[in-house]
From TrEMBL:
PROSITE patterns, A to Z: UPF0034
Protein name: tRNA-dihydrouridine(16/17) synthase [NAD(P)(+)]
Assigned keywords, A-Z: Flavoprotein, FMN, mRNA processing, NAD, NADP, Oxidoreductase, tRNA processing
PANTHER family in UniProt: TRNA-DIHYDROURIDINE SYNTHASE (PTHR11082), TRNA-DIHYDROURIDINE(16_17) SYNTHASE [NAD(P)(+)]-LIKE (PTHR11082:SF5)
Organism annotation: Yarrowia lipolytica (strain CLIB 122 / E 150) (Yeast)
InterPro entries in the record: Aldolase_TIM, DUS-like_FMN-bd, tRNA_hU_synthase_CS
Coiled-coil ranges from the UniProt annotation: none
Span list, region Disordered: 384-423
Biological processes annotated in GO: mRNA processing
Presence of keyword NAD: yes
Lineage, broadest ranks: Eukaryota, Fungi, Dikarya, Ascomycota, Saccharomycotina
Domain DUS-like FMN-binding intervals: 32-317
Keyword rRNA processing found: no
Biased composition (Basic and acidic residues): 389-403, 410-423
Length: 423
């Protein structure tokens, strides 16, 4: 038995344990995931307006955060963790050195409710830097990282992990993390290899297995396979977890955490959502991140841009753009959506399809409304339906433009006739 599998040693500073902390934070059910350059303050404010109960910061590099004042100021500004606008908040770090992790965490412990260790990042940069999911085989190091914060930090420590192919190994891994001192455990139901076009479906069964074999007072969040608002309760029921965390689902449709009601609440128009986000960015103190804005614009508009293709290139040229450039883009989106509604026969309905093998049903959503993004799954193109929608939308756009052109031609002919009569 290694140190990693032993229970928490020594006594930690007096602070709330898992279930107590969970209740103090209001028993959050809907959680914004930590996302590099994307779960920044403005996005968290937007997400909270649309039903998010708890937010995580983007993943910060512990060594850089602890040693570079410039990096720290760029990543965590004066309003991050503000008691009135940015709580409850968990700050996430990636690290492979306990002392570096503690030094970074000490700098934020008075401005957050907990500090999270990233054990889930599967990207190549994490492999190179030896952090995230590439620590999964080094249980002793993980134990030291978590236990260091558990024993020496004012606020609780939490962790976000991925699963192994073997559910029993995943359970032992989760137990080690909890025993090291983690008060919340987020389980992403995918393995390290499941990323990009190999993402596939998250395994809710393995999340449920782990949850049911951990102590009952353990707080567990589920992550993966949440496309629609209705999926949140379904995920909690099927995994028996305390809450659901969303990353991509939240990015493509910030209204995913709203209670299921109607299309305007659950699938808001892209022009309205884009305007709301942009106004928050302008009102938020500190320098706005063009990287974050560009990414959010692309994702909010992901179903809109294949139809309104000229906007894609325009957004692509915004790397160093000022607010005036962004404002023009938002206005163009507003004008284009307004043009759609000028058609009295526009089909603005959200249609629920038949139940799929994965247990849910896709929705056919108008391309000018926020909606989930579908990846390829097990070699099958899951976004075939979306492609069809976009094709139909493009054809409808051409028809509108043609009709508009016909009206213009008619007006021109009438004008020419009047001129001829006057002459």
């Amino acid at each position: 038995m290694t140190a990693a599998s032993a229970s928490s040693d020594a006594s930690a500073p007096t602070k709330l344990a898992g279930r107590q902390l969970f209740e103090k934070l209001g028993k959050p059910k809907t959680i914004v995931a930590p996302m590099v350059d994307q779960s920044e303050l403005a996005w968290r404010i937007l997400s909270r307006r649309h039903g998010a109960d708890l937010c995580y910061t983007p993943m910060f590099h512990a060594k850089l955060f602890g040693t570079s004042e410039r990096y720290r100021e760029e990543m965590f500004g004066p309003m991050d963790g503000d008691q009135t606008t940015d709580r409850p908040l968990v700050v996430q770090f990636c690290a492979n050195d306990p002392d570096e992790l503690l030094a970074a965490a000490k700098l934020v412990e008075d401005r957050c409710d907990a500090v999270d260790l990233n054990l889930g990042c599967p990207q190549g940069i994490a492999r190179k830097g030896h952090y995230g999911s590439f620590l999964m085989e080094d249980w002793d190091l993980i134990h030291k990282l978590i236990n260091k914060l558990h024993l020496e930090l004012k606020v609780p420590v939490t962790a976000k992990m991925r699963v192994f192919d073997d559910r029993d190994k995943t359970l032992e891994y989760a137990k080690m993390i909890i025993n090291a001192g983690a008060q919340f455990l987020t389980i992403h139901g995918r393995t390290r290899e499941m990323k990009g076009q190999q993402t596939g479906l998250a395994d809710w069964e393995i999340i449920k297995y782990v949850r049911e074999n951990l102590p009952k007072d353990t707080v567990v969040f589920a992550n993966g396979n949440v496309l629609y608002s209705e999926d949140i309760e379904k995920c909690m029921e099927e995994t028996t977890t305390d809450a659901v965390m969303s990353a991509e689902g939240n990015l493509y449709n910030p209204a995913i955490f709203n209670k299921p009601t109607d299309k305007d609440v659950n699938f808001p128009r892209v022009d309205k959502m884009l305007r709301e986000y942009f106004e928050i960015v302008k009102e938020t103190p500190g320098k706005a991140s063009n990287t974050a804005m560009k990414s959010h614009f692309f994702k909010i508009l992901h179903s809109f841009l294949p139809v309104e293709t000229e906007l894609r290139a325009e957004i692509g040229r915004t790397s160093k753009a000022g607010f005036d450039v962004w404002e023009k883009i938002v206005q163009k989106v507003e004008e284009k959506v307004a043009k759609i509604y000028e058609d009295p026969n526009v089909n603005d309905e959200v249609v629920i399809g038949e139940e799929e093998a994965w247990g849910g049903a896709y929705r056919t959503v108008p391309y000018w409304r926020c909606q989930p993004y579908f990846r390829r799954c097990n070699g099958e193109k899951a976004n075939t339906m979306v492609s069809r929608q976009q094709k139909e939308a493009a054809e409808a756009k051409k028809k509108r433009e043609a009709e508009s052109g016909d009206e213009t031609d008619k007006e021109d002919k009438e004008t020419d006739t009047k001129k001829a009569k006057l002459e």
